[in-house]
Amino acid sequence: MLSLRQLEVFLAVIETGSTTRAAEAVALSQSAASNALSELESRLGQKLFDRVGKRLVLNASGRALQPRARALLVQARDAEALFTTGSSQLKVGASTTIGNYLLPRLLGASGHTLPCERVEIANTDEIAERMLRFELDLGLIEGRALHPDLVMTPWRQDQMVIVAASGYENSRLEELPWIMRERGSGTRSVVEQELFEALGALQPVLELGSSEAIHNAVRAGVGVSCLSRHVVQQSLQSGELQVLAPELSIRRQLYLLRHRQRPDTAAVARFLECCPAEPDC
Question: Is 148 exposed, middle or buried (0-12, 13-18, 19+ CB in 10 A)?
Fold first, then answer.
C-alpha cells in the first residue's frame, strides 16, 4: 500500500529536483528519501522521473500521479484539522474587491482573534487555479469558477455603478473612454456580461490590474468605469465622483469557493462564523 510519506517525498522531489534537497524539505535522511521514492515507483511499477543531468524531471507517469498525491496529502491534513477547534491555520484567497475592501471590514468586526492566518489577493481566475492546486483552503470570488472540482456557494451581494469625474455627464456612455480591469478578473467579466446588451462591446482605452488603480484613474479624469460601491463610496460621498446612468447599476453575486474533495474543517467553520453569508444572497 502507498504511504503518505512516500507521496510527501514524491512531491518534494518535484519541487526541488533531487532526493537530497527533498530529504531536507521533509526532514529525512537522503537515503530514507531515496528509499521512499524507490518503494513508491516499485509499488506502482512505473518510473515517475527521468534523469536529466543531476536533476530528476517529472515524466508522464509522474504528472498523472501529482494531483492525486497532492489531494491525498491535503485530505490527510484536513482530517487532523477537523478536530483542532482552535486552529487558525487557514489560507484564504480573495479576489481584489473583496480582499481590499469588504474582507478587511468583516475581519475588523470579528474581534481580536482572526479566523485565518493568511489572505492571498488575486483575480478570480488565479484564485480558482490556486484552489485546484490545493494551495488555498477557501476562496472568496466576484466572478464564476466553472471547473467541476470547484463548488461555488452564494455568499454576499455587491452593487456596481458607472462612475466618472465631472465633465462626462452629457456624453453617450458607449462613446466615453472606458477604463477596465484585466481579463480574468470577476469585475471585468461582470461588466462585459451585464453592459454588453445596453452599450455594445466596450473597447477600453486603458486596462489596469486593480480596482484601486482604476478608481484613481477615474478620479484623475482619465475616463469612466464600472466599479463596486465598496471601492468608490467615499469618493461619491465627497462629490469627487458621480454615478452615471444609475439605471444601469449592476447587482452581482459574490461566492464562496470550495474544493469538492476538501470537507470543511473547524478552521473553515470558524471563518464563516466571522464572515457569514448574507441571508438574502
Answer: exposed
Distances (CA, A) of 18 to 49, 58, 152: 10, 11, 38
Chain centroid to CA 40? 33
Instruction: Please give the sequence-ordered ranges of beta strands (E in DSSP) within the chain, or none if there are none.
Output: 49-52, 55-58, 91-94, 118-121, 138-141, 150-164, 179-181, 206-208, 225-228, 242-244, 250-259
Burial 186-201 (b: 16+ CB within 10 A, else e): bbbbbbeebbeeebee
Rounded to the nearest integer, the mean pLDDT of the chain is 86
Q: Are 141 and 254 in contact (CB under 8 A)?
A: yes
CA distance linking residue 123 with residue 105, whole number of Å = 19
Tell me what pLDDT residue 22 has.
Answer: 86
How does pLDDT run across 251-263, given as a tens digit for each residue? 999 999 999 888 7
SS3 181: strand
| β-pairing verdict for 179-181 and 206-208 | parallel
Whether 11 contacts 66, CB under 8 Å: yes
Query: CA separation (Å) from 36 to 10, 59, 148, 191?
Result: 8, 18, 33, 51
Q: Which of 81, 107, 77 is nearest to 92 (CA)?
A: 107
Question: pTM to 2 decimals?
Answer: 0.67
Burial 149-180, CB ≥16 within 10 A → b, else e? ebebeebbebebbbbbbeebeeeebeebbbbb
Q: Is the separation of the CB atoms in 155 and 255 below 8 Å?
A: yes
pLDDT at 256: 95
Place of cell 488555498: 136
